[in-house]
């Protein structure tokens, strides 16, 4: 469990993390999202004692990181996969790391096997590819069999097989009751991996909600109906609750009515439907809408993309007892 209370970090005049409060719960994969410079790495560094909060606090399993007598057994961390002695082998790197906690060769071999590094375990880390370095970083994080894992961009540089492996690994670790905090800029991957999402923007928490609530709260669902009698169907569905857009001569996009309502209305009036599709927003749509005002480093093309990201201005309805989505 990770608990942050009004966590704040200033670097001179720059407030990198601003009064951030959240709880990362056991048994779930929690995704940590935010544009470049939003404060994710700074927050993660404070969680594991690499940076001191200017004010506020953050605990792991009930204690400030530095108060844990054997931190490797409490929290496993992948922050910078390249921060490894390049001349050492993967095996001796892990053995040296484990020695600080009385962790021996058998556990080192276990995590090497678990991360698929067997064939390169005795090779110099300096010659590792980005993906192999990531696997070694994950092996190091798992070394102490910790109940909490913090993985910053673990799929960075991994091939598709490696991406799926990380997804299955973190889902498995959460199913064992561990706490997993995961950052990634890959939205489709995050949507498949995380249960909950915390979004940071300019150092503040913009959203903290289950994935489904985040998407439904920050995007608009609609229905696409294709009919050779689209004009008649549009007249039939016309009501104050419905916003109907004619996409082409046969295609309507309807916001405010469910596909069941549209289908039943068409059937009652004897209108032919060639297609009736509920359209849901993606995590990427929700993320773009939520962070549209928080992106610090933006190219002109990305700016246009975010502004036209479809569902901007969507209603943000969530259950405040389980989630928080604000702008
Ligand atoms: N040591 C430092 N000194 C001064 N400013 C810093 C320092 N570390 C971070 N910052 C600033 O704090 C802000 C948050 O940075 P941070 O690296 O935490 O963001 P991030 O969300 O992890 O971004 P990214 O997705 O690019 O990794 C940025 O504006 C960054 O420039």
**Span of the ends, CA to CA:** 26 Å
Radius of gyration: 24 Å
**Number of structurally distinct domains:** 2
Order of helices and strands: EEEHEHEHHHEHEHEEHEHEEHEHHE
Give a description of the structure.
The structure is a single chain. 34% of the residues lie in helices and 25% in strands. The chain is built from 12 helices and 14 strands. The chain is elongated. The chain is an alpha/beta fold and 327 residues long. The chain has 2 domains: 2-216, Rossmann fold (3-Layer(aba) Sandwich); 222-279, Alpha-Beta Plaits (2-Layer Sandwich), CATH 3.30.70. The protein starts with a strand and ends with a strand. Bound molecules: adenosine-5'-triphosphate. Adenosine-5'-triphosphate is lined by residues 11, 14, 16, 34, 36-42.
From the structure above, extract its key features.
4-stranded antiparallel beta sheet, binds adenosine-5'-triphosphate, Alpha-Beta Plaits, 327 residues, 14 strands, 2 domains, 34% helix, 7-stranded mixed beta sheet
List the helices and strands and how they pair.
Blueprint: E1 2-11, E2 14-24, E3 29-33, H1 40-47, E4 55-60, H2 71-74, E5 75-78, H3 90-99, H4 105-114, H5 130-142, E6 148-152, H6 160-175, E7 179-183, H7 187-193, E8 196-201, E9 204-210, H8 211-218, E10 222-226, H9 230-237, E11 243-248, E12 251-255, H10 259-268, E13 275-279, H11 283-291, H12 300-307, E14 324-325
Parallel strand pairs: 3-7, 3-8, 5-6, 6-7
Antiparallel strand pairs: 1-2, 1-4, 8-9, 9-14, 10-12, 10-13, 11-12
Bound molecules: adenosine-5'-triphosphate.
